[in-house]
TrEMBL record:
Domain SH3b: 33-85
Biological source species: Nitratireductor basaltis
Protein name per its UniProtKB record: SH3b domain-containing protein
Top-level taxonomic group: Bacteria
UniProt keyword terms in alphabetical order: Signal
Signal peptide range: 1-24
Length: 225
């Protein structure tokens, strides 16, 4: 087993251990704008983003988890495998979550004793209170880009400056949900979404990021970065 130090957007100490049959990095493509986080979980800080349809190197994934270690444009961190696709020996493009068992190295992650859990890697103390519903899983695999379970994704251009200012000036306590914040994903009914004066969409902070939400479908239409 080989241990290496994880590089992230902030200084810290965390260990990634690699094991398994596969050893080479895998090239994957993002099906949507996808966060890179400093650790494998929704509570970790966003340190970068993989643009929709952009390629990224996948160094390994945690067994029994949807978090994979990635390297993109000089940034190393973790991304959610539901929104990455790759081609393996069969030549078929599949969602990375559904990859063959030995297609990528198995990795583990742990904070070092000197930092405590998540202290130096940007993790918050918020508890995960549910799961994000759906999203553009495999949007480029046999379907139209942006397709999601339950219908097409509504997307909007950048909101007016006054909307962004209102959301940032009226920040609320974030809710943490298993999964990743992407356009088209749905929020469970337990998540309170807030009104914005004279604006058709509502907002909430999910996994540390403000998002705009279509109130009837409760789907994310814009992620403020």
């Amino acid at each position: 087993m080989k241990s290496i130090a994880l590089k992230s957007g902030i200084a810290g100490a965390a260990l990634v251990a690699m094991s398994g049959i596969a050893s080479a990095e895998v090239m994957a493509k993002a099906t949507t704008d996808l966060n890179i986080r400093s650790g494998p979980g929704p509570q970790y800080e966003v340190v970068g983003v993989i643009g929709a349809s952009e390629d990224t190197n996948v160094g390994g994934c945690i067994d029994g988890s949807k978090w994979c270690r990635v390297s993109h444009d000089g940034i190393e961190g973790w991304a959610y495998s539901d929104y990455l696709t790759a081609s393996f020996d069969t030549g078929e493009t599949v969602v990375l979550t559904e990859r063959p068992a030995t297609a990528v190295p198995a990795v583990t992650y742990e904070s070092t004793a000197s930092t405590g859990a998540g202290a130096a890697t940007g993790a918050t103390t918020g508890a995960v209170a549910g799961a994000i519903i759906g999203g553009p899983v495999g949007a480029v695999v046999g379907g139209a880009a942006g397709a999601v379970a339950g219908g097409a994704v509504d997307t909007i251009s950048a909101p007016p400056a006054e909307v962004r200012t209102y959301v940032q000036s009226n920040a609320v306590e974030p809710v943490y949900l298993e999964g990743e914040v992407v356009v088209g994903a749905g929020l469970p009914e337990t998540v309170e979404i807030r009104e914005i004066p004279d604006y058709e969409y509502r907002y909430v902070y999910v996994n540390g990021q403000p998002v705009l939400v279509e109130p009837e479908s409760r789907r994310i239409v814009y992620v403020m970065r």
